[in-house]
Design brief:
This protein folds into three domains: 57 residues; 80 residues, no CATH class; 88 residues, no CATH class. Helices cover 49% and strands 17% of the residues. The strands form two sheets. Strands 4-3-6-5 form a four-stranded antiparallel sheet. It has a two-stranded antiparallel sheet with strand order 1-2. The chain is extended and about 75 Å long.
Length: 272
């Protein structure tokens, strides 16, 4: 009897997706798993179609990408990858990041739009983004950032990209030359103050992850934003700053209310 029940259940599970149809709000079914119109539309919103593009063809292409993603992820589950500690840790992190972004967006929507006085003050205090905005052409060297303090001291004393390349070469570190452009509007104020006043040809180095990027400004092109051009940029920047400050205050409140227990040796140092 138990065997018969098990067989009936197995058949029922195997055929449970057979009655589903791709119609209405269901645009496709992949091995019994539905893909909804809402899911497809969300993906389509991320696609920038050129003027005159075939919208129906683009929709079919995006849907096929979702289908391909779904069949591969289904196979990954069949292989048990969704049960591994690495997957669970990354899934938790991605879920937390998504929730934080959505929470921040909701908080930002409650902020009032800055008034004209606030905008004028922000524009006058951040000239690198507006009246003094420039486009810099940079020559660069990109390399694995050394950890040896002796090499780092040598790099700090260099006066050109050629000297940096020599120091790196002597240390057995390869460097890749590159060229790029940099908008001064995106440079944080404290960094801009140091870099903008450097002597011509003097390199500056910033670590990005495990990579070091040494740059030299080879030309500066004025690109001021004034009047009506400056206003939407200032509104967006001010709202971003308001949201950042709001989130910091919210985090402080939540941290004080949270009950957190650390294993010995893992707790952060006391706040000064």
């Amino acid at each position: 009897m138990r065997l018969r029940i098990a067989v009936v259940l197995a058949v029922a599970l195997a055929t449970s997706g057979c009655g589903k149809k791709a119609e209405g709000q269901v645009v496709a079914i992949v091995n019994g798993e539905e893909i909804s119109a809402a899911e497809l539309n969300a993906e389509l919103r991320k696609v920038s179609l050129p003027p005159g593009a075939d919208a129906k063809l683009a929709r079919a292409s995006v849907l096929q990408r979702i289908v391909d993603r779904r069949v591969i992820s289904q196979q990954a589950r069949e292989d048990g990858l969704d049960k591994t500690p690495d997957f669970l840790n990354q899934q938790r992190r991605m879920t937390e990041d998504l929730l934080i972004r959505m929470f921040a967006d909701r908080q930002a929507n409650t902020n009032q739009l800055p008034d004209e006085k606030q905008l004028a003050q922000y524009i006058s205090q951040n000239t690198r983004m507006f009246a003094d905005r420039e486009q810099w052409s940079l020559e660069q060297l990109r390399f694995a950032m050394p950890t040896d303090p002796k090499i780092l001291r040598k790099l700090d004393s260099t006066q050109s990209l050629q000297e940096i390349a020599k120091v790196l070469g002597e240390a057995g570190i390869s460097a890749t030359p590159a060229k790029t452009r940099l908008d001064t509007a995106v440079i944080p104020a404290d960094i801009y103050g140091r870099v903008a006043t450097m002597p011509a040809g003097k390199p500056f180095i910033f670590p990005v992850g495990g990579q070091g990027i040494a740059s030299v400004i080879v030309s500066r092109e004025p690109a001021p934003l004034i009047g009506d051009q400056a206003r939407p940029i200032a509104v967006a920047a001010l709202r971003h700053e308001q949201s950042r400050q709001l989130m910091q205050r919210k985090l402080k409140t939540l941290r004080q209310a949270a009950k957190v227990e650390y294993q010995k040796g893992y707790a952060p140092p006391p706040a000064k």
